[in-house]
Specification:
heterodimer; A: 382 residues; alpha/beta; Rossmann fold; seven-stranded mixed beta sheet; 12 helices; 16 strands; 42% helix; B: 582 residues; Alpha-Beta Plaits; Fumarate Reductase Iron-sulfur Protein, Chain B, domain 2; FAD/NAD(P)-binding domain; 4 domains; five-stranded parallel beta sheet; 22 strands; globular
């Protein structure tokens, strides 16, 4: 049924439909709306789940590690400083191969205090072994959440579903909220391959020698790689039930494009308008929307840009001393791809600054009118 | 996609081997111990009652055990729950948190519960001894002495001049403070333990000599029944009455109506009791005291209640002469002035020059202190043949049986609970004298101190569980108040002022069981384990063992790492962290 709901509530509805059993979270703007409504669902019996109130995000994730180890489906949500506080346990979650799903609302890190959107918080966690999905609108948030549970529980890796603060988390949009029966068809009950069981006592996470440790990490790498294949199958199945498809990336008008703008999050929607107006003027522009960031869909990126002359990556984040993080990843994906097009890096919308149609058009023209990137990163709007 | 055939690589460390082989206790360099300590209230109680434990048992609904815990140390819980000035509450650690526990209210509740259900105590008793002891005076000191001696295995006969036992409790304390059934009940309970009381026995020097011939020892606890003379002209006229005698006449059931205004001279509890009795008998009472109200030896709460009941008080006046005129008394009062204070803050007073005035009253009551009935009852201290203890004096002549003086004869503070303390010490002293000789008395009594003393524990003396208690007195800083919530002290229900003035009905009313439990539950139980299980809950190594069929806890040192959480989270300092010996 179509409903007009907030991006935050898209997450909450998906958690309800996924029949999550344990939720633990600590409030932080702009994530709070998600767990606020979930706490009501737990209190009024809409959900048959335990809501654990904890004293910090560190404890929130620690509690879920315990719960998930007992073989139940779990959820948490956080943002910015909260995610940073979880850092140690992010590693633990993937190392313990626990399929926890988290909603992460992109918010700038302090100081100065800033509650608006910025991707640095989640992208800084790229090496923690979590699968990361970036969403463009409310519908994609809800759908990604459901797919996240399927994927996590298939490959035994945690998944972070990422959405922009306010532009997405606090914006009301029309979202098709499926019925429980439909979701049950897509997402069956979680059947863990391992769990804590009082009838058959065991302990997890002990000391291991280097060889075993390296094999564990090799398995995580293997599962990450395998998750690309699995996601494809899961999305196919999702399409069969819901007739919506996203892909790890979405290549828009890339086949004949000379310049491809690489985007993520809500910037993609704005970019779609830019693409329409530029195409109307005869400009051969395309968009490569990055949905999946981890694992990074290297082959799909290579394929999408194979005919382009230039690539312009728009980063709402920055890795100090290097460049925009998506730009780094795209460059890394292409470096072993002989004759690949040059990659222009643009930094825009940091700390929640608007990324407007005009700004994106400026990026397009700058790229078109420059033969080769003069700098690794060009800061827009400074 | 068949998810049952999930082939995603998944190597994780997992062990089904027990971790019991990993004896983490070997990491320990600090060792937690269950180490029960001493509550401050129990040291303040002259009878050394195990108050922390009494409150714990009451809160758990174990009323019989709580009552037995009292009467192991004090045979008068019904009396002391009412008329004891409860010094225990002054030292209650909870005073620093919100308000002291109403220890006396709970004590009275337990005595009433025992009486209502006619409970028979199960008390330990030492093996029978051959010695027989005579106790002279069936007041609280004498009865307590006999009661404790019976516990220690001796046979005792108590001799009393009055027709009924109780001493000051029966013939002095007014009924509105101590109802007769309470006293009779308590004495009957003590008699049922094997204490034999003979009333109507003339007590004189000849009787004492006979007693010394027939018994192995004699305890003398004849109290202070006589009012001290004021030594002023006119003291002997018929309108001047002895306060103690007045109270005794009321308690004998005589019909008295002190009409008009009566002057009561003195500032002790007797003066207050006399004045309050006069008011109840329809008269008006004016207390004349030579010092200030704050210097009065009477309990402040009782002074306050007397004033509420209409008793008047005049401070800093001393009578110097009494004359009679047309059936009235003319009191000449000398005004006094303060000339410094003693170390306890009590005023020194001097006559204020020639400032005197005359006062016209109907009656005069003397309540200016009490003394023994005869000089032969005054203990004579002689080095070499006597031993002065904190609450008793032992006289041991070369030939013949020992004499012990106790109660008001030797106690600085004249109160029931001090009389009990005296009886307990006398019983211990005689037992040591008979069993181990005079030299052993001081060290053996010293070993039974509650905390640093001077209160003594009969349970410790008799080898009970309380022996293992550490003498360290728990202070407020050692209580983990995170585990307590503010809760006001119980409000003692009382007769209305108007009701009090009409009769000698008891003023303090009973409280219900659930209120008693709630009050007892406020107790921190300083220093003792009340099985709250904080140690069990906080132990990260599951090294606290709870025995299902036992109340106590123990530590499995094979696994205890010595983190000390249990000790820190023990709300009541019943645990100690010690350095492990290397």
């Amino acid at each position: 049924m179509k409903r007009v709901i907030e991006g935050s509530h898209s997450v909450a509805e998906a958690v309800r439909l996924a029949r999550v059993q344990v939720i633990s979270a600590y409030p932080i703007t702009p994530q709070t709306h998600i767990v606020e409504i979930l706490s009501e669902y737990c209190a009024n019996g809409t959900m048959n789940a335990r809501f654990l109130r904890v004293e910090s995000e560190h404890s929130a994730l620690a509690a879920l590690i315990g719960a998930q180890s007992c073989g139940v489906r779990t959820f948490t949500a956080t943002a910015s400083q909260g995610l940073a506080l979880m850092h140690e346990l992010l590693h633990w979650t993937s190392g313990a191969r626990l399929p926890i799903v988290m909603a992460e609302v992109n918010r700038a890190l302090a100081p100065g205090w800033n509650i608006w959107t910025d991707q640095t918080d989640s992208l800084a966690q790229r090496d923690t072994g979590w699968i990361q999905m970036y969403c463009e609108d409310g519908q994609e948030v809800l759908d990604s959440m459901l797919q996240a549970y399927r994927l996590a529980e298939r490959v035994y890796l945690p998944v972070m579903v990422v959405l922009d603060a306010f532009y997405l988390s606090h914006t009301y949009e029309s979202v098709d909220v499926p019925t429980e029966a439909e979701v049950d068809r897509f997402l069956p009950q979680y059947q863990p391959r391992f769990q804590v069981d009082t009838k058959n006592p065991c302990a997890f996470g002990q000391f291991v020698p280097p060889g075993a440790y390296m094999k564990m990490r090799y398995d995580i790498a293997g599962a990450m790689e395998e998750s690309l294949v699995c996601l494809d199958k899961i999305q196919e199945e999702f399409y069969g039930i819901f007739q919506r498809r996203y892909g790890p990336v979405e290549a828009i008008y890339c086949d004949d494009a000379e310049i491809i703008l690489v985007t993520s999050g809500t910037v993609t929607s704005t970019c779609r308008l830019v693409l329409q107006s530029l195409r109307a003027k005869g400009e051969k522009v395309g968009i490569l929307k990055m949905k999946l960031f981890r694992p990074f869909p290297v082959a799909m990126v290579r394929e999408a840009v194979s005919h382009a002359k230039k690539i312009a990556v728009i980063d709402r984040n920055f890795s100090f001393g290097a460049s925009g993080i998506f730009a780094q990843e795209v460059r890394a994906a292409l470096c072993n791809f002989p004759g690949h097009p040059p990659v222009f890096g643009y930094i825009a919308g940091i700390g929640g600054l608007d990324v407007t149609v005009e700004l994106l058009e400026e990026i397009y023209w700058k790229t078109k009118n420059t033969a080769f990137p003069e700098r690794e990163s060009i800061w827009m709007g400074i | 996609m068949n998810e049952a055939e999930n082939t995603i690589p998944l190597l994780i460390p997992c062990s089904s081997m027990s971790t019991e082989s990993n004896k983490t206790g070997s990491w320990r360099f600090l060792k937690p111990l269950y180490d029960e300590k001493t509550s401050p209230c129990s040291t303040a109680c002259p009878a050394g009652e195990d108050i922390a434990r009494i409150e714990m048992l009451t809160a758990q609904g174990m009323f019989k055990e709580a009552w037995e815990t009292i009467i192991r140390e004090n045979p008068f819980p019904g009396v002391c729950g009412r008329i004891c000035p409860h010094p225990c509450e002054q030292l209650c650690n909870r005073r620093e948190f919100d308000e002291a526990i109403a220890i006396h209210t709970v004590e009275r509740f337990l005595a009433e519960t025992a009486s209502r259900y006619d409970l028979k105590p199960t008390l330990p008793r030492l093996t029978a001894k051959k010695q027989k002891i005579a106790v002279v005076g069936a007041g609280p000191a004498g009865i307590a002495t006999a009661y404790f001696l019976v516990q220690l295995g001796y046979s005792c006969d108590v001799f009393e001049a009055m027709p009924e036992p109780g001493g000051i409790l029966r013939w002095g304390i007014p009924l509105y403070r101590l109802p007769l059934p309470t006293l009779r009940n308590e004495i009957a309970q003590i008699e049922s333990q094997g204490v034999y009381i003979r009333t109507g026995q003339q007590i004189d020097k000849k009787f004492l000599q006979d007693a010394r011939n027939h018994y192995n020892a004699v305890f003398i606890g004849c109290g202070h029944p006589r009012t001290v003379e004021m030594g002023i002209p006119g003291e002997g006229i018929s309108a001047v009455e002895n306060g103690l005698e007045f109270l005794k006449r009321i308690r004998r059931g005589e019909s008295i109506s002190p009409s008009g205004l009566s002057a009561v001279i003195g500032g002790g509890n007797t003066a207050i009791d006399v004045a309050r009795s006069i008011v109840r008998l329809g008269g008006k009472a004016l207390i004349l005291y030579r010092r200030r109200r704050c210097d009065m030896p009477a309990f402040e709460e009782k002074v306050q209640m007397a004033l509420e009941e209409g008793v008047e008080l005049r401070e800093l006046v001393a009578p110097v002469k009494i004359t009679e005129e047309d059936g009235h008394c003319i009191l000449t009062l000398q005004e006094m002035k303060i000339s410094g204070e003693d170390s306890g803050g009590r005023a020194h007073v001097l006559p204020d020059e020639r400032k005197t005035r005359e006062f016209r009253v109907q009656h005069v009551f003397k309540a200016t202190g009490a003394e023994p009935a005869g000089n032969w009852l005054n203990p004579a201290e002689k080095p070499g043949t006597s031993l002065a203890l904190t609450n008793a004096l032992l006289v041991y002549p070369d030939k013949g049986p020992a004499l012990v003086f106790g109660g008001d004869l030797t106690n600085e503070t004249k109160s029931v609970v001090h009389a009990v303390a005296s009886g307990k010490q006398a019983a211990m002293a005689l037992d040591v004298l008979f069993q181990d000789g005079i030299e052993a008395i001081v060290p053996k009594i010293q070993a039974c101190l509650v905390g640093e003393g001077p209160s003594l524990s009969m349970e410790v003396y008799m080898g009970g569980d309380r022996r293992s208690r550490n003498s360290h007195i728990v202070n407020y800083e050692e209580i983990n108040t995170d585990h307590f919530q503010f809760q006001p002290r119980i409000t003692q229900p009382r007769l209305l002022r108007e009701e009090r003035l009409r009769s000698f009905e008891e003023i303090d009313l009973k409280i219900s069981t659930n209120l008693a439990i709630r009050e007892a539950d406020r107790c921190f139980n300083c220093g003792i384990c009340n099985q709250c299980d904080n140690c069990y809950m906080f132990c990260p190594d599951i090294a606290v063992i709870r025995e299902k069929d036992r109340q106590d806890r123990r530590i499995n040192y094979d696994y205890c790492k010595g983190c000390g959480l249990c000790v820190v989270e023990c709300p009541r300092n019943a645990m100690t962290l010690k350095e492990e010996e290397l």
